Amino acid sequence: MHFQHCITSAILLAASCSSLTFAEENHQSPFIEPSEISFETRAFWIRHANDALRYLTPSPCPFEAFGTVIVNHSSTPPDSPHGAMVCIGANAIVTGNPTLHGEIAAINNCSAVLQSDPYHLSAQEALAAFADLSLYTNAEPCAMCATAIRWAGFKELIYGTGEERLESLGWQTVGIRSREVLERSRDLSSRTRSVGSVLSNETDPYFAWQFNPMAPCPQGCLREGHVCFGQETG
Ligand SMILES: *[C@@H]1O[C@H](CO)[C@@H](O)[C@H](O)[C@H]1NC(C)=O
Ligand SMILES: *[C@@H]1O[C@H](CO)[C@@H](O)[C@H](O)[C@H]1NC(C)=O
Ligand SMILES: *[C@@H]1O[C@H](CO)[C@@H](O)[C@H](O)[C@H]1NC(C)=O
Questions:
Q1: pLDDT digits over 195-223, tens only?
Q2: Which region is the signal sequence (predicted)?
Q3: pLDDT in tens, 169-195
Q4: Is residue 186 part of a domain?
Q5: What DSSP string describes the chain?
Q6: Using CA positions, which residue lies closest to atom 13 of ligand 3?
Q7: Residue located nearest, by CA, to atom 4 of ligand 2
Q8: Does residue 27 lie in a domain region?
Q9: How far, in Å, from the CA of 74 to the mean position of ligand 1?
Q10: Which ligand is nearest the CA of 200, by number?
């Protein structure tokens, strides 16, 4: 929210304007929707969250098609005008670890990345670094992940497909929306802004085929019976 506050002095015929930015810390709502970041930039990174799947899993359309990318929007290097990518992650529960949802995998990865080349942050510095970062994920975080995002102290959470949509597609959830976690965790010292349903027209197909044999596969994948496979693997 941005308020332009102008005080005009009749005597001096001059106007003094101060632009007050109501930071979310000053208000109850942690859901300030930042307008300074364009849809184009949001879409760029949501697409990258989808793409994390093809980098990190054997198929571009795995069953657990949850991908995440963590971005520093304070940094806009010339070769990356949309912000600097810090790390990616993808759901990896197939490894036998049920907590490895895409967001948790990415937080684990960023923690390691920030403490190694080229960042070389100390453990304490790595913990503090999350406050500058934005987490993009192609589906709304579950309550476990939303809570981890709050403990990490991310500046922003941006997601594609919402949890209600996931439920309507047949996905199980624990029934606590990320928004509720953010709302109820407002006593934590950090604040996390949340922006949902960003580019969900492109994230929905990743979650639409698993429980509906009639649904088309995501782009680049073909159906064989009940499963969508990457086109190149036939
Ligand atoms: C994010 O970018 C800012 C500005 O370049 C920099 O000061 C900060 O260290 C960066 N944080 C991380 C975790 O890369
Ligand atoms: C961590 O993120 C980097 C990209 O930032 C990626 O190259 C690497 O494969 C990721 N590792 C894991 C385990 O996800
Ligand atoms: C999805 O919608 C956005 C606008 O919200 C549009 O820019 C984008 O091209 C659409 N994607 C596809 C594949 O149609």
A1: 999 999 999 999 999 999 999 999 899 99
A2: 1-23
A3: 999 999 999 999 999 999 999 999 999
A4: yes
A5: -EEEEEEEETTTTEEEEEEEE--GGGSS-S-----SS-HHHHHHHHHHHHHHHHHHSSSSS-SS--EEEEEETT---TT-TT-EEEEEEE--GGGT-TT--HHHHHHHHHHHHHTSTTT---HHHHHHHGGGEEEEEEE---HHHHHHHHHHT-SEEEEEE-HHHHHHTT----S--HHHHHHHTTTSSS--EEE--TTHHHHTHHHHSTT-TTSPPPTTEEEETTEEEEGGG-
A6: 202
A7: 87
A8: no
A9: 6
A10: 3
Which of 41, 47, 201 to mutate to test ligand 3, by most ligand atoms within 8 A of the CB atom? Answer: 201
The tokens for 199 are 């580019």
Say what the pTM is.
0.87
Where residue 52 sits, what CATH number does that domain have?
3.40.140.10
Ligand closest to CA 89: 2
Q: Please indicate whether residue 102, judged by its CB atom, sits closer than 6 Å to ligand 2.
A: no
Which of 41, 197, 199 gets mutated to test ligand 3 (max ligand atoms within 8 A of its CB)? 199
